[in-house]
Amino acid sequence: MSYRTYNELWAQAQLTLDEATKNDSNLLTSKTNKDKVVVFKELSTVMVSYILAINKLDECYDQVIQPQKRILIRNILELSLGRYLELKNDMVNLNYNEFTYLDSATAQLGLLPQDVELAIPSHYRNERLKTIEWQNNFIDEVLKKTGFYEEEKIEVDMPIRQAILLIQKHERARQGRMRAQFMKEVRAMNKPDAGDVELSDNARKAAMKIQRVWRGFITRRKIRSRVVEEMLLIGMLPPNSIDIEEQQKAEEVKSARRIVQTKRQKEYELALIQEKEKIKDHVKEKMKEDIRDEVRAWYMGVKSQTGKFPDLPSEESGGSAVIYTRYKTASSHSKSTSQSSSKGTKSHKSKSIAGKESKEEVKKKADEEDTGFKMGPSNFLQELMLASSEYEEVWKGMDESKNTSQMHIKSIVKAQKVAEVERELRKIVDVHLRAELEILQNALDKDNAIRIKRSKKQKKVKRSSKKAKKKRDKDLTPDRTLESLFEELVMNGIIHKYPATRLNSFKGDASYAGCDVMRWDNDPSPTLGDVRHAVRDSCVLPMLSDQIHQAGPAVRSVLIAGAHGSGKHTLINAVCTELGATLFDLTSANIVGKYPGKSGLTMLLHLVNKVARLLQPSVIFIEDAEKTFMKKVPKTDKTDPKRLKKDLPKLVKAIAPTDRILLLGTSCCPWDCDQKSLTG
Q: Basic and acidic residues bias: where (predicted)?
């Protein structure tokens, strides 16, 4: 497909996204609603719109060649995923249920369940293929060293004598088979013909009846196949299967486009470097002079108004670039205050009247607001709308008829690098201007015969005391490399390989009537498709990128509960495969006898924490998680399952928003443990 096809697909995605963000912002700014059914209906409709847009954006990012488009598409895609997860969190808070049923909204919009199946973007895993391959090869090498794997035996050339004996053996066997076949044919020729035997009347009637039934069956089957062929010809029936050749051709085209993508990306990165050097060589000094003139004009203007020179904003607060934003804010504030001054007396009177409201009425209003549902604040919606506006301003109406090869646009590269060089030069110029301002102020003070002790250094921005007081964990292995730590964990079986399993291999449809069942049952039984969606939304999507994980709803640990053979391990392997994650197995049966004692356990948790943060995303797995928090361990269990009871909550609490680490547990009997310890 050409670039026009994906431009149209991107435009369709933006239309769907604009509608979703519009409805979403209306919901976000609306008052609390007491009717949960109405809120659920509105939220589910917005979620379906986001799913449709995300699937289209994912396809665009996978196949669009132009590198500058891909940067914006990826940003919009990640922001959309983040907002979808926020809405999912609101839906969970609304229904107190981890499973979200979108069947009603799907039917209302005239869509099929397959249309609202949110596809996990594959490019996150594809970008980590080299790291995943390195990990798997490293694990294989370590296991070969320790004797767990046997090296493949290299075939040695066979001696000539042995080869001759083997050929003779096969030739004798061939001749024996030929003699046996010849004797079989001789015996068949001497056997009397079965057609010469006369059949009885009953046998003849039976044969005719069998022939009649068989011919009727064959004829009916031919007629049915002709009817199906006719229906397929006129388009009344869909084909049973997709043509394999066409599917292969489509995959070849996609692979070819990905190769061109990589080529265009390298050209774009090279152009960024060359353009920056070009700007520095030609307009660097002029840009410095322009910045100096702007800042000098600013502080001379302030001096003429106030009689003294102002302080230049510190580098932490933005430097001289902050001056212009401050002036805009100040001018708009002065206009608003002048307009509101005439209404001062009226507002004062209204406030005095409002202040006389009784406390009971205020309390009553607060209770009314509390009874309704209010959506949580969003960290993604505002940025998503800004990114969509960038598409409207830059890419929507762009004429690309002369850029059929989808090269990068030089004017955008130039504007981007001019802004970047200006930021770098502004920092350098600000240092000189601060010294210049200090000299000018000292000279002014002398002229005015005023002795004012001025600080020679710019006051630094005060950091929060809590952040400064935060103790860092002591590094118990400061002199060891990542490879040595990884090797130790592999040798002890803490890190191991897992079978490649995609999440869509966990077969099952989502609920077709979940919303209807929820009317009389707040906790309906989920289907396999609902379980797959819950695992996707809780375990996979939040861990895809740093942007989504840091700003989205925090998910540190997940428990998958179910009966034996229900597919818990399949889901664990699918989560690790979709993320390309490093798997750490802290199951009690796996760590028994390893790292003994308190110091050994401390070292084990240190190694897991350190390597998990270096090889993000990481999954820490515990099988039969309820055993860790059981009140009384059976005497027959010799694995010491309560070994991690005290340290596991600390490990989870230490997972920061910047750490893409997930604790995953499975359980067949979650009711056997202390519920407070498990959920706390």
A: 354-367
pLDDT of residue 454: 46
583: which strand partners?
A: 619
User: Using DSSP, how many helices (H) and how many strands (E) does the chain show?
Assistant: 24, 4
Phi first, then psi: give them for residue 126, nearest 5 degrees. -60, -35
Distance of CA 310 to the CA centre of its chain: 47
Amino acid at position 653, single letter: K
Q: What is the mean pLDDT of the chain?
A: 82
Q: Tell me, rounded to whole angstroms, the distance of Cα 233 from its chain centroid.
A: 42
Q: pLDDT by residue (tens digit) across 348-371?
A: 444 444 444 455 555 555 555 556
Question: CB within 8 A of 606, min separation 6: which ones?
Answer: 473, 476, 477
Of the candidates 50, 45, 52, the one whose C-alpha atom is nearest the C-alpha of residue 104 is 45
The answer to whether 81 and 55 have CB atoms below 8 angstroms apart is no
Q: Residues with Cβ < 8 Å from 574, sequence gap 6 or more?
A: 501, 502, 503, 505, 506, 535
Contact present, 257 and 6 (Cβ < 8 Å): no
Cβ atoms of 79 and 20 within 8 Å: the answer is no
What digits encode the pLDDT tens for the residues 266-277? 999 999 999 989
State CA 220 to chain mean position distance. Answer: 53
Burial bucket for residue 157 (CB in 10 Å: 0-12, 13-18, 19+):
exposed
CA atoms of 394 and 387, how far apart (whole Å) = 11
What is the rounded distance in angstroms from the CA atom of residue 317 to the CA atom of residue 326? 12
Cα–Cα dist 2/361, whole Å: 64
**C-alpha–C-alpha distance, residues 275 and 259, integer Å:** 25
Can you state the angle between helices 67-95 and 381-390, rounded to 10 degrees? 150
Beta bridge partners of 15: none
Q: Model confidence at 242, in pLDDT bands (50, 70, 90)?
A: low
- Smallest CA-to-CA distance from 476 within 293, 344, 610, 618 is with 610
Instruction: Please write the tens of the pLDDT for every residue from 462-511.
Output: 444 444 444 556 777 888 888 889 888 988 889 888 998 999 899 888 88
Q: What angle do CA 163, 164, 166 make, to 5 degrees?
A: 65
CA–CA distance, 299 with 309 (Å, rounded to integer): 6
Radius of gyration, CA atoms only, the chain: 36
Least confident of 6-15, 325-334, 574-583, 634-643: 325-334
Among 662, 678, 554, residue whose Cα is nearest residue 625: 678
The Cβ of residue 431 has, within 10 Å, a number of other Cβ atoms equal to 13
Q: Coil, strand, or helix at residue 168?
A: helix
Q: CA 629 to CA 262: how far, in whole Å?
A: 50
User: Please, are residues 73 and 57 in contact by the beta-carbon 8 Å criterion?
Assistant: yes
